[in-house]
Amino acid sequence: MYGLNKELTPSPAPAWLISLEECPAALSWSDCGHWLAAGTVTGGICVIEVATGITLWVRSAHEKGLHTLCWQPGASVLASCGQDATVRLWKISREPQLTLFDEWTINTGGNTWIEHLQWRPDGRQLAVASGRSVFLFSSEGMPQGCCDFPESTVSAISWRPTGAQLAVAGYGGVRLFNVLDLNSKPRKLNWKGSLLSLSWSPDAKIIVAGCQDNSLHFWRLPEGHDAMMSGFLYKPVQLCWSRDARWLTSGGSTKLVLWPFDKKGPEGRAPISIEWHEKPISALATAAGSRWFASGCRGGEVAAWRQLSDTSPAACMQLSNRVECLAWSPVKNGKSLAAASRDGELGIWEMMQ
Q1: Residues 6+ apart with CB under 8 A from 275
Q2: DSSP line for 118-172
Q3: Is 248 helix (H, G, I), strand (E, B) or coil?
Q4: Could you say which residues form the signal peptide (predicted)?
Q5: Where does 107-350 sit in CATH, by number?
Q6: Is the dihedral of CA 103, 105, 106, 112 positive or negative?
Q7: Which among 131, 134, 175, 344 would be 20 to 30 A from 195, CA to CA?
Q8: pLDDT tens across 25-69, in order?
Q9: pTM to 2 decimals?
């Protein structure tokens, strides 16, 4: 039943609420948790002091539009990219202000948009996807090689949580690259279809992808056994793991559909379905330092859950429009949740015990 116990669910006031005045493309917390960076679809970046909600820095960073941004783990460097085929590295200073200290343009001869970039979990490398290739750069911006995906345009990338393996997805499956030896052949996980999103489980044993045909496909590593989960009303591009890798949920419907990934796995078992959101889920996020996770829907509703297997959320908040981005503070045991709507409303909520 939709709305089950919603009237009994706490609705905390935001610590602060501001307007970006544009649709957000991405949110990213600095590793220290002091700053939140927000990028907009028209190419702007703003940096906000989390403790006060004060906007410290605003700049037009990518004239043709921004796709994503992310802070370097363990450092004060912010990477951004967009439709201008350029990656920019920004470093925060004591004021604090962001200073552009490096940039490079990638020309692949076709579509020059840069749609994906991710720092390696240890912060030593930045993976940048453009066209049919993923380019690797050091934390200082030095080129270190390239991972080619000849079958199609790269649609998603995901670093192994531990180690130096990069998963790259597109039409036809996933390729696993050893970034320490790019001359070695990548491992191929084949699938006849178009993959749209990609996630490595926290224990690095499973890779799951959201597919164009409204299904999920996953591979068990190192065996390579694969299976499919179907029946979604929409493309399940949002992927969210529990910290212990025992549960996976995704977007693709109004329900939170939880698939068990314990020793038995989801094969041949019915998932748990939680009816809470009245509109289809549009954003998911897991907290790095705790069991908390969050879900947001096209109706602007944000639910914060103490853990992925709960049947009802601990708190529920309302934004003015469709939820586009969710991000938890990376600080250990942190319970600060950032949420942004399609019309640019951005807020921070503090979850209680």
Answers
A1: 1, 2, 4, 254, 255
A2: EE-TTSSEEEEEETTEEEEEETTS-EEEEEE-TTS---EEEE-SSSSEEEEEEEE
A3: strand
A4: none
A5: 2.130.10.10
A6: positive
A7: 344
A8: 999 999 999 999 999 999 999 999 999 999 988 989 998 899 999
A9: 0.92
